[in-house]
Amino acid sequence: MSLILSASVVRVRDGLPLSASTDYEQSAGVQECRKYFKTLAKKLAQLPDRCTLKAGKYNINFISSLGVSYMMLCTENYPSVLSFCFLDELQKEFITTYNMMKTNTTVRPYCFIEFEGINNHHYMIIVGGSVTALSFIPPSLLPGLASSLLMPASPAQVLAAEPTEASFPCR
Fold it and tell me: Which uninterrupted H or E stretch holds 150?
């Protein structure tokens, strides 16, 4: 079964969590992937704006814009196009709901926890203009959960992201 398991909104410059979904899945694999959210959150400024990180049976997808990143954890068989449609819609809803200047000045984690968009379980079946936009900006694929991503990076280590080869049904 393909599912979105978790979602999070994070400030890019320092990884401060702004909002997160209520997580019902408690398996060991999902718990481990949630740890990767925190690690990724600290490194978002170094990564491309659209990425997919493959983590075993799960994928972590994220997009970043205007200093805020929108992240999600889903099963590996959840369609990439729908993942990024969901993230685009989440981003639009967050931007229209909150003043983006407030996200830059907040100091308290989860201060936007009341954000309904992340907890609404209308997890996307939109295949319209968002899919067309995705065809022009394909996400980058971060190869596996490399130990360099989880360990403090030395100056010699560089995170490499490769464009994914995905077919998009709408053009």
Answer: helix 147-150
Q: Structure tokens of 83?
A: 């993942």
Alpha-carbon dihedral angle through residues 58, 64, 68, 70, given to the nearest 10 degrees: -30
Give CA–CA dist 51/48, Å, rounded: 6
pLDDT in tens, 105-150: 998 988 888 786 665 544 433 333 444 444 445 566 665 544 444 4
DSSP string, 80-148: HHHHHHHHHHHHHHHHHHS-HHHHHH--STTTTTT-HHHH--------SHHHHHHHHSPPEEE-TT-HH
Residue appearing with tokens 């969590």? 17
Q: Phi/psi at 88 (nearest 5 deg)? A: -65, -45
Check residues 137 and 9 and name the one with the higher pLDDT: 9
**DSSP helix/strand/coil, 78:** coil
Give 26-61 pLDDT, tens digit per residue: 788 888 888 888 889 999 999 999 999 888 898 999
Question: Are the beta carbons of 134 and 168 closer than 8 angstroms?
Answer: yes
